[in-house]
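User: Sorry, what's this?
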Amino acid sequence: MIRFKNLKIAHMIMISFLILFMTVVMLFVGSLASGTCNAAGNSQEVRVGSELDFPPYAFVDESGQVAGFSIELIKAVTDAMGLPPSEKAQG
């Protein structure tokens, strides 16, 4: 057993080891849970809800299509993921 003459140093070392241990445990648990989350099985669809009466971010244009900055951002993300775009206005 190591004996410290200064208890403050001993406490600081113990707290440092505790923090290091907790960090390692959190990283290990996080790596176990970092798999892909797909609640719908093998579905290749992303469903996003948006308020459609909030121009210029999201709205329904004259032709009945959803449009706006948020909609374009959603399209860019689905394109980057390699998923087909699918818009559907509800309400």
Summary: Helices lie at 7-32, 69-81. The radius of gyration is 25 Å. The first strand starts at residue 53 and ends at 54. Strands lie at 53-54, 58-60, 66-67.
